[in-house]
Amino acid sequence: MKRLLALLVVTAMVLALVPASITRAQDGSDIEGSLVIESWRNDDKTIWEDVLIPAFQQHYPNIDVAFSSYLPQDYNAALNAKLEGGTAGDLITCRPFDLSLALFQQGYLASLNDLPGMENFSDVAKSAWVTDDGSDVFCVPMASVIHGFIYNQTAFEELGLEEPVTEEAFLELLQAIRDDGTYEPLAMGTVDQWEAATMGYQNIGPNYWKGEEGRLGLIDGSAKYNEGGFLEAFEALGRWQPFLPNGYQALTYPDSQNLFALGMAAIFPSGSWEISVFSPLVDFEMGAFPPPPPADAETCYISDHTDIAMGINAATENMEAARLFMEWMTTQEFAELYSNALPGFFSLSNHEITLDDPLAQEFLSWRGQCESTIRSSYQILSRGEPNNESQLWEVTARLLNGELSAQEAADIVQEGLENWYEPQQ
Questions:
Q1: pLDDT confidence tier of residue 286, bands split at 50, 70 and 90
Q2: What are the tens digits of pLDDT across the range 336-356?
Q3: 20 has a pLDDT exceeding 70
Q4: Is the model's pLDDT at 178 over the cut of 50?
Q5: Staple 233 to which of 205, 328, 367, 393, CB 3.0 to 4.6 Å?
Q6: What is the DSSP string of 229-293?
C-alpha cells in the first residue's frame, strides 16, 4: 500500500511539471471552441481546409476552425473595419512590419511573449512582428521567401556552365552566355522599377553589407547607403547592365517571367516565390543558386525575407482555443506541412524539415550555408518621406538604365533617409 501511495505522489508531481497544453494535446477531448481565421491569402483556402486544419483537429477534434479570406487588396480595409466593429475572427493573418505593428499598438493583437514554442524562432524570424524595442512579439512567424537565382538547367548543360560561387565567376558566366548568343543572360526589366530593387539590390546586397550587421547599422545610424557595403551593392548591381535583355527598359515583370518560362533567357534573378509560378509552365529542369559573394568574402548571406504570420485577436472569446492553435503553429508538424503545401514559402521556425519539391529544398538548404537577413528598407526605415523602399525602386531602375552612377544612386537614397530619420542625421 505504501509503495502504491508513493507511486501516486510521484506521478502527481510529474504531471504538475508538464504544461497543461501538452497534457491536453495528448487527448484534446476536454477542449472545445470555435475559431475563425482572417486572411488575405485567398489562394491558400484549400490548403488550410484540406491539409492544415484537419491536421490540427487530429490533436483537438472539438475545436472547429473556419478560414475566411479576402482579395489581397481588400484585406487591410476589411480587417480594420471588422476589428473596429468587434466582428473580426479569432486569428488574424499578419502582414509584415508596420501594418501589424499598428494593430498591436491599437490593442487589436494580443502579446505572445509567453506562448510556448516561440523559442523556436530566431530574432530575424520575429523581426517583422515585434515592437521596435523588441519587448513584445505579437504574431507567430509562418513563412519567408528566399532570394536567389533560378536558372534553366538545359541552357547550362548546352553551354557547359556551372553554378557560380563568387561574384567574379557570376560575371564570367553572364559574359559566356552573352557571347554564345542563344539565350539572354538575365531575364529582368526596369519598367516596373521594383524588380531592380527587390530582385536585384536586395538579392545580392546582403553579401556586401554583411546581412544583419549592415541592416541594423542603417537603423541605428552607424551605416550609410552611400558608403561601405551598401555603396558596393549599388556598384555590383550596375555591373548587370550589359547582361539584361535587349529593350529591357520597356520590359515588365510579366514580360521577364515569360522570357524565362519560354526558354529564351538562362537566368531569372528572383526568389523562391517563383517556384509555384514556373513549375507548371516550363518544359525544362530548373536549378537555383544563392547570390554569389565577392571572392574575398568570409561568409555568404541570403535575404530570407519575412512574409506572413498569425496573431490572436485580443478581443477573442475563445482565447484558450486560439492559443492552442498558435502553439501548434510553432511545431515541426506545422512547419513541414505548410512548407510542403506551398513550395517556395518556408517555415521560419528552426526545425529541420524535408521538402518534397527539389527546387524548394535547394533554396531551403542555403539556410545551413549562409547567414539570414531581411530586406534593408522594410523595418522602420520606410515610415517617413521620402519612403526608403520607394526610393530604392526608383534609383536602382535608373542605375540599370544608365541614368545614374552607383554613387549618385546611393547619395540620393542616403539624402532621402537623412531628410526625416533622426539616427541618420
A1: very high
A2: 999 999 999 999 999 999 999
A3: no
A4: yes
A5: 205
A6: HHHHHHHHHHTTGGGSPTTGGG--HHHHHHHHHTT-EEEEEEEGGGHHHHTTT-SS-EEEEPPPP
Peptide bond into 386 cis (omega under 30): yes
pLDDT digits (tens, 9 = 90+) for 107-116: 999 999 999 9
Contact 289, 151 (CB under 8 A): yes
Same fold across 30-143+306-354 and 146-304+374-424? yes
Q: Look at residue 18 and tell me whether its pLDDT is greater than 60.
A: no
Give this prediction's pTM: 0.87
20-33 average pLDDT score: 56
Mean pLDDT to the nearest integer, 305-317? 96
Which of 153, 144, 150, 188 is CA-nearest to residue 274? 150
Measured in whole angstroms, the distance separating CA 239 from the mean position of its chain's CA atoms is: 26
Q: Please, which residues have CB within 8 angstroms of residue 207's CB and are 6 or more apart in sequence?
A: 167, 233, 291, 292, 293, 294, 297, 300, 301
Mean pLDDT (whole number) for 391-406? 98
Give Rg (Cα) of the chain: 24
Q: Would you kindly state where each structural domain of the chain is located, as residue ranges?
A: 30-143+306-354, 146-304+374-424
Residue listed under C-alpha cell 513550395 = 343
Q: Return the number of other C-beta atoms located less than 10 Å from residue 14's C-beta.
A: 9
Instruction: Give the mean model confidence (pLDDT) for residues 273-295.
Output: 96
How many of the other CB atoms lie within 10 Å of CB of 155? 20
- In the chain, what's the furthest Cα-to-Cα distance? 90
Strand 33-39 and strand 63-69: the pairing is parallel
> What is the domain class of 30-143+306-354 according to CATH?
alpha beta
Identify the pLDDT of residue 43: 84
Grouping H, G, I as helix, E, B as strand and the rest as coil, residue 190 is: coil
Query: Which residues contact residue 391 at a Cβ distance below 8 angstroms, ignoring those fewer than 6 apart?
Result: 412, 413, 416
pLDDT computed for residue 15 by the predictor: 37
Tell me the residue type at 170: F
CATH for the 146-304+374-424 domain, from 3.40.190.10, 3.40.50.1460, 1.10.10.10, 3.20.20.450: 3.40.190.10
